[in-house]
Specification:
Elements lengths: L13 E2 L4 E10 L6 E11 L3 E4 L2 E4 L2 E2 L2 E2 L2 E5 L13 E5 L7 E3 L5 E3 L1 E3 L5 E5 L3 E2 L8 E7 L12 E2 L2 E2 L4 E10 L5 E9 L1
Antiparallel strand pairs: 1-6, 2-3, 4-5, 7-14, 8-13, 9-12, 9-15, 10-11, 15-18, 16-17, 18-19
């Protein structure tokens, strides 16, 4: 089996092979009876991360890196004193759909949040893995979620509020830190 480093020497982000490979050595005399000849066979007896091909054993470790970031903003409402009412904000893709993603545990999440009483909000970017680096940077659009009854015809008004139609372009650059985590850096391009 592979000798797995102690905790302090493990490489972050690496899952080590758990395979146990059994080597059986058979010693027999040669045809003349003058020498002993050894032959070995290998078998993966338990665990994962090893293969035997052509009498060669290969142990395979796996590196995984992931990461996520966030973008913060503040909602202000004219003519309101005190607590800011709740409004929703989301990251949209180029097709105008709210972005969804799988988090580190594989659970589907939505890039949408509500502001607090102070008007502040923080929205998470999607969770990225090392497979996403090749397509970096990513582009999203941060917008206030406008209710269906707030349309262009009524000035984007619903109830007592006129909704903000501003769109902020967010680019997210993703790179590997080499320690099992990713640099996920969002930037606001404009509004």
């Amino acid at each position: 089996s592979e000798v797995v480093p102690t905790v302090s020497k493990k490489v972050p982000g690496v899952t080590y092979s758990t395979a146990v490979v059994t080597m059986k050595v058979k010693v027999t005399p040669d045809e003349a009876g003058t020498k002993l000849v050894a032959s070995a066979t290998y078998e993966v007896s338990s665990g994962t991360g090893a293969i035997v091909e052509d009498k060669k054993v290969t142990f395979t470790n796996t590196y995984k890196a992931g990461g996520q970031s966030s973008i913060s903003g503040t909602k202000t409402v004219k003519n309101i004193k005190g607590n800011v009412p709740t409004f929703n904000f989301a990251l949209y893709d180029e097709d105008g759909k709210i972005v969804t993603y799988k988090d580190a545990n594989g659970i589907t999440q939505t890039c949408m949040v509500s502001n607090g009483e102070d008007g502040k909000f923080t929205i998470k970017t999607p969770y990225y893995t090392q497979d996403d680096i090749k397509n970096s940077p990513y582009t999203y659009y941060l917008k206030e979620v406008i209710p269906a009854d707030a349309t262009k015809d009524n000035g984007y008004t619903s109830g007592n509020y006129k909704y903000d139609t501003a769109s902020y372009t967010i680019t997210v650059a993703v790179s590997d830190k080499g320690d099992g985590t990713l640099n996920v850096i969002p930037s606001v391009v404009g509004g």
